[in-house]
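Justification of computing resources. Each target in the renewal requires a structure prediction run like the one illustrated here; the chain below, 312 residues long, is used simply to show the kind of job we budget for.
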Amino acid sequence: MTLMYYFTRLTRRVQTMNRQANINPQAKANRSPSKRPRKTTPTNKTQADSGPIQERLTEQFRSLRLPMFRDQFQASADRAAAEDLSHVEYLAELTDLECQARHESRINRLMTKSRLPLGKTWETFNFDRLPLSVTRQLETLREGSFLDRRENVLIFGRPGAGKSHALCALANQLVRQGRSMLLTTCSLLVQQLLIAKRDLRLQKFIKQMSRYEGLLIDDLGYVQQDREEMEVLFTLLAERYERGSVLLTSNLAFSKWDQIFKDAMTTAAAIDRLVHHSVIIELNVPSYRVETAKQTQSGGQPRKGSKQKSTS
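Resulting structure tokens:
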């Protein structure tokens, strides 16, 4: 007999067995009564068995710098088992925790580097003292898109009007959004620039300042500087022009800035670079400190919302 003959017989036999199985699904079980279904056992491993795995995962998550995975993977796994979550849902929950923790950590780092005072926030600023137009300007700036456009914010007003508080409150809101900001007084910044120039690292210092999306210069013109000091400040402003935002406060109008830069041409150049692509805010309001002093002397109480220390 040929090979084809045996193959044909085997095929017919398989077909016959399949037909019989379709007619009686229990036929195979009846023909083999000794073979019974194997009982399934729970697949959950004991604590002793999972211990080495937990230790390995903990060490791996530590090596990968995933602190929330390291601290929460077992608790999330227990919750996923109890709530019958899928593997993807379990992974998504752990990833959400890790992303949230990293975001909060980044905001904390930015807030520390910003050098913003703790008390001068958006919540503690008294907007009732400001004209509605100024409040709307600050609300618009709070969104932060001006940083993407490298626009400047210039806040003018008499001493005690609340310039510094408004500037810090705005910067505080931007840092919470993940923006990098740095607050410094004009006098301190000038001294740092002079030291950098003396040590032949002025460009390096200016490059360090460029890492911040917003450079806050408080009290420009409050303390009179000499020509050399103003030259290094102008160099910083010129280098930062259209490369990063400058947010500053000043108690001097532009017409008096020749007192700051000591030279008409330098003054005009500085104003031109700051005003181009800028938002100008004028706080034409009385001094908060003077108002508080008058109310104290007259025996009155500060009006509602004025409990914050709004300074120039």
